[in-house]
Amino acid sequence: MAVKEGRRTNGATASPLRFERIHQLRAHEYVAEQIRRHIALRLIKPGEALPAERELAVMFGVGRPTIQHALRLLEASGLVEARRGRTGGTFITGHDQDSLAADDLILRVMRERKELEDLLLYRRLIEPAVARVAAATRRSTDLAAMRRAIRGMAAATSEPDYMRHDTDFHLAVAGATGNAFLTRAIEQIRMRLNDAMTLLPESDAWHVRISGEHEALLEAIKNGDGETAEALMQEHVAISEQGLRAVLAAIRRRGMWK
Fold first, then answer.
1. Considering only Cβ atoms within 10 Å of each terminal Cβ, which end of the chain, N or C, has fewer?
2. How much is the pTM?
């Protein structure tokens, strides 16, 4: 039988699809990405030293050359700096607290306000549902992680330290679901929302309120009360969003962004 024009002899047609080749991340890139994620989540504070290279090698299960290569990538990105001498090491780069840095933060947040709007809606929909699931699946280790985060918030002596433990709490709730997709969703929310959350007021009253809301959430999750946990997280997210919107409105009123 004659082969029709435009067809291969095995009967397969030529596909118009074109795929890009997959480039696998090398070990040092995996290491750099994990450290970068911890920095973005503020789980490692500005000015804080990373563990020694030998310790990092053990943590990641790789050789020291891999760790050194990863640290060079992070240093080139301006995320860490190497210091020599007896008190040396690799440190997370600090952010100046002067007005120039504050203005830069505000401009960065306001430029991304469309993404911020999308993110706030995403959080409003997903995080209460995560709390409900966590109440049904939590283990004692998850509850212990939430308690540690709450204690850390109470003992925090700086705003970055407080935010770090706040993030720890929300990640512990997500981790209690045992669902990797839900956990990654909350990680993504925290990473992208942290800049905006930094604009919220630093006051004892505000901190006491947040900690109280976390305590109530922990109690509901511990009791396996998914309905209450969902309602409490919904209120918690709404209050946080309300505060953030008030700050952004004040920035616009001051004429810092039109």
1. N
2. 0.70
